[in-house]
Design a protein that fits this description.
homodimer; alpha+beta; L-amino peptidase D-ALA esterase/amidase
Chain lengths: 389, 389
């Protein structure tokens, strides 16, 4: 069920090769509370600059997304392109230009085809409807499947809905943001609360996944709350219920991004417990989750715990004490020593599954963290060596 | 020409599959000054623990190396194995047990086959001779070629020789050390000076290469100086001349490791100039050199400078000012903006070469650094997904 007040559309603007959806729109029938988190990359795409500026107002009416061109490293012309394309859509929607939030994803460094996007805008706006699926398809690049998640939440005695849509399959190591993600809800949430809810959710979901350790120039997650479910802005336990639903939606989308990672076939949670503190646990988990040698072993279904141990050792957040390693619930290392071939044979069988957990138990404190990663395949290399050709 | 005082040998000990050289020995006919640098990984292999302890004396008579088994994560048994195998060789050489420096490389977590190594020791010692080539072959794992480099240097009016041998093709992102490297010289160098010379050389060579960002548990570089060239210990400009020769040998070996990197076909110097300081430049260069997306683009011969810009942006050492990028001398970005298809077509042609430079010019200070990297190929994945099977 779609959050009330929102409609969705997609169109072909020939930003990608002709014949493919590459322009998407989410529109709200009233001013929605708006919040956003953006890439921490210091090379920032033009739409991120414009979007961040506009989100600061805490209100928005629409999100305009193109795929196939990142509009990054495009200078003042790129800023102008982001403003002109969103102004065209704002005009058609009858809303102020700065009520449209622009997002782009795709190749870095090419001029955005403003004229083609402007030409496709009327069909885009005419196509607004209740089905988010075409929108979810229009924002994809190397993704193989669209990514949606929804929750229903009861807050202040009224039912509200939360819908999330995301794209992302490579250049994924979000830093307080991810590729593109959009969360809309009809719960009545004040802009400042929505901002806090979104930041907390992103920190626990999109920021705990990695595909290749590369952070995009365009990472953006936006949240819009229409309030169309009715009632005054939620607070206290009601706000917490909405926050839980937003986090659940973001977690689904984050896992969907890892599951659709370029060339990958495994979704692996790297869980670290017993680190000095949570920050240390996160650093250990990230180092393991990003190690190319660990990721190729995941691909080969090889319980090569020596590579996991080596990554823990170089993480800079491990003091050198005893450690245990379990793979999919099978103990393969106890007190830093391997448990032998039989244990590894059992772990190998578990690793044939599409999803499992690698658990690393340190003895240095109470710190805990999980980072979700994928395997590294020859297909990832093929996709990225050929991406632009 | 071999540094005077040193002899070399290799043997088959069935640590690897039978029929392959996997045991190597360097012996000096007199106590040699000794220095070593070791992995900073907090998970440290047993031979590193023993070797580090023995090198502290500043003197050694031999280096014993096995390939195929890292003797890492093997606990007290592993320490005992390193001591027993080196004691056996010391006995045959007629030198004190702690004058033999043990090194291991290979799979982590398996018990070292002490008996097989001890059984091969007499043939190993009997085989000592002037040719370092069998030794250079015996220490390889996934390497495809042995790696040697030599220089002649005149110090204090006498000619001295420097010979280096190394192995390494994966798990390469040395942190003040590298995989295994051995430098022997007949120049008369005091142990403390040899230590300083080796540290400086490693920092400028082995520590400026990356294959996959993974640091081994066994990284070790040892230097032995026999003094057999004659004369008193060198100092001042003579010591500097020896240091230059050691650094040149280490640089050759470091480049040879990158050139032989698992599945790689390109050697690319990532040079950063104009960073805030040298540390910032190194951080930017490392981030670019380790980016899987940059490395797959190098593999695809794709001048995808957007990925280079994105890596600069997420490095944490770039403040956000204008930047230029050149690939193999071809300018592709000026002031943060792409120079267009023609420039990229020219860069693509340059990238078909086996070696070239990516130059990143920032405008934030005088910091400079070079990190040498390789491309990331589907073959790297295949090698590492299959390594143990």
């Amino acid at each position: 069920m779609i959050p009330k007040g929102f409609r969705f559309a997609a169109a072909e603007a020939a930003v990608k090769a002709p014949g493919r959806l590459d322009l998407g729109l989410i529109a709200c029938d009233r001013p929605a509370a708006a919040a956003g988190v953006f890439t921490r990359n210091r090379v920032v795409a033009a739409p991120v600059v414009v979007c961040r500026e506009r989100v600061a107002a805490g209100r928005a009416r629409a999100v305009l997304v193109n795929a196939g061109n990142a509009n990054a490293c495009t200078g003042p012309q790129g800023l102008d392109a982001a403003r002109r394309t969103s102004a065209r859509v704002a005009d058609l929607l009858g809303v102020p230009p700065d009520a449209v939030l622009p997002c782009s994803t795709g190749v870095i460094g090419l001029p955005l085809p403003v004229d083609r996007i402007a030409a496709a805008a009327p069909a885009l706006v005419d196509g607004l409807g209740d089905d988010p699926e075409p929108f979810a398809r229009s924002i994809l690049t190397t993704d193989t499947v669209p990514k949606q998640s929804a929750r229903t939440v009861t807050a202040a005695g009224r039912q509200a809905r939360v819908l999330g849509v995301a794209k992302g399959a490579g250049m994924i190591r979000p830093d307080l943001a991810t590729m593109l993600g959009f969360v809309v809800t009809d719960a009545p949430v004040a802009a400042a609360d929505l901002d806090a809810v979104l930041r907390a959710a992103c920190d626990r979901t999109f920021n705990r996944i990695t595909v290749d350790g590369d952070t995009s120039t365009n990472d953006t997650v936006l949240a819009l709350a229409s309030g169309a479910a009715g009632g005054p802005p939620v607070s206290g336990p009601d706000l917490a219920a909405v926050a839980d639903a937003v986090e659940a939606v973001c977690r689904d989308l984050a896992r969907a991004i890892v599951a659709d990672a370029e060339g990958a076939g495994k979704v692996v949670d790297v869980r670290v417990v017993g680190a000095a503190d949570d920050a240390a646990a996160l650093r250990v988990a990230r180092t393991v989750a990003e190690s190319p040698l660990v990721k190729t072993a995941l691909h080969g279904e090889d319980p090569n715990w020596g590579r996991i141990a080596a990554a823990v050792g170089r993480s800079g957040a491990y003091a050198g004490g005893p450690f245990d390693i379990e793979i999919g619930g099978v103990a393969v290392v106890r007190d830093g020593l391997g448990l032998g071939e039989e244990a590894e044979a059992r772990a190998h069988r578990v690793m044939q599954a599409g999803a499992y957990e690698v658990r690393i138990v340190l003895a240095e404190g109470e710190g805990r963290a999980v980072v979700t990663t994928c395997d590294l395949s020859a297909e990832y290399v093929r996709i990225n060596a050929d991406y632009r050709s």
